[in-house]
Design a protein that fits this description.
alpha+beta, Beta-lactamase, 2 domains, 3-stranded antiparallel β-sheet, 10 strands, 13% strand, binds glutamic acid
Length: 320
């Protein structure tokens, strides 16, 4: 079915979602990383970026928050750019674990693969793959440059968050060394873990995340900078990774109710990709029991459902 949606309709629906949920007080900030526990829980921002670069933005869309697990998507794109889709499948995998983001059990169950670059194990493994191997500074530069190209502007390291995470990341340290045991760390394990911790501590805005999402939706062409960031053959690969594991063990529930592949982070951000139509991002710190932003989920679901945008309904939507 062919449908046309006007930009005004999207604006109206986004405003409705914002008004409906802005005073919602459900959920609780992540508390296992001290920095995140202290963020103002009232912050709430929405940003939509269309394929022509036009943006629809509400609330705290310029507030810089910890990107956390959403960074896994960006570094997955970097290794896809550096190695190609087949090699990433062989060296990490593309399977949903069905388990929490930091599961050690998932590694033990599937010791031949860290499963997917979008869970902690696969993300640490992905950081170990970033070229040039053996050079931490140059690897970090590649990670940040890639983020900047995807988001259209540079993210900033939140030093306090980095320190806070580094001091408390005991579970991730175990993951890095367990992966080493299975030959799934392709560089120094401590360096790979540090790169992962640093990338999670990057400050990003909903505005930047929506541009990144739109770049994925737009076959790798950044609609803001008009630069081709990655080969268009990689776009469906990255969207499939997001669709299968973006909400960890709740990915099925998310896709079923929202219809949009999306990735969450414990900083309160969510990045959603509607291929060929738009990138959407929302941010609000309080999380549900599974570690996903309550208000960001509610807002994105509302917007998608009200507009009838769903990757599974086969509608060909044009925006006028
Ligand atoms: N830095 C976090 C961790 O690895 C990211 C978790 C998340 O956002 O899901 O513990």
């Amino acid at each position: 079915m062919e449908r046309t949606i006007t930009i005004q309709q999207i604006k109206d629906v986004a405003q409705e979602a914002y008004n409906l949920y802005k005073d919602n007080t459900e959920g609780k900030n992540a508390d296992y990383i001290p920095y995140l526990a202290n963020i103002n829980p009232k912050l709430f921002g929405i940003s939509i970026c269309l394929m022509n670069g036009e943006k629809i933005q509400l609330g705290d869309y310029q507030y810089q928050f910890g990107i956390e697990s959403v960074s896994k998507v960006l570094t997955a794109i970097l290794i896809l750019r550096q190695y190609g889709a087949q090699k990433v499948l062989e060296m990490i995998g593309a399977d949903a674990t069905g388990l929490p983001f930091n599961s050690i059990m998932a590694i033990l169950l599937e010791n031949d693969h860290p499963s997917t670059p979008l869970v902690n194990a696969g993300a640490i493994s992905a950081d170990s793959m970033v070229q040039p191997i053996g050079n931490s500074d140059a690897k970090w530069k590649a990670i940040v440059d890639n983020m900047t190209e995807l988001c259209g502007s540079a993210p900033q390291l939140i030093d306090e968050l980095y320190k806070s995470e580094s001091a408390t990341n005991f579970n991730n340290r175990s993951i890095a060394w367990l992966l080493k045991n299975y030959n799934r760390i392709y560089d120094d394990p401590d360096m790979s873990l540090d790169l992962y911790t640093r990338q999670c501590s990057m400050g990003i805005t909903a505005d930047q995340l929506s541009v990144c999402a739109a770049t994925i939706a737009n076959d790798g062409l950044n609609p803001d900078t008009k630069k081709q960031v990655f080969g268009k053959e990689l776009a469906p690969k990255i969207t499939s990774l997001i669709a299968t594991v973006g909400f960890y063990q709740h990915t099925g529930d998310w896709l079923y109710t929202s219809g949009v592949p999306a990735k969450t982070g414990v900083g309160g951000g969510v990045l959603g990709v509607m291929p060929g139509i738009m990138g959407i991002a929302a941010f609000a710190p309080p999380l549900d029991e599974a570690g996903n932003s309550v208000k960001a989920q509610l807002a994105i679901k509302y917007i998608m459902n009200k507009l009838g945008m769903n990757i599974f309904n086969g509608h060909r939507i044009s925006i006028s």
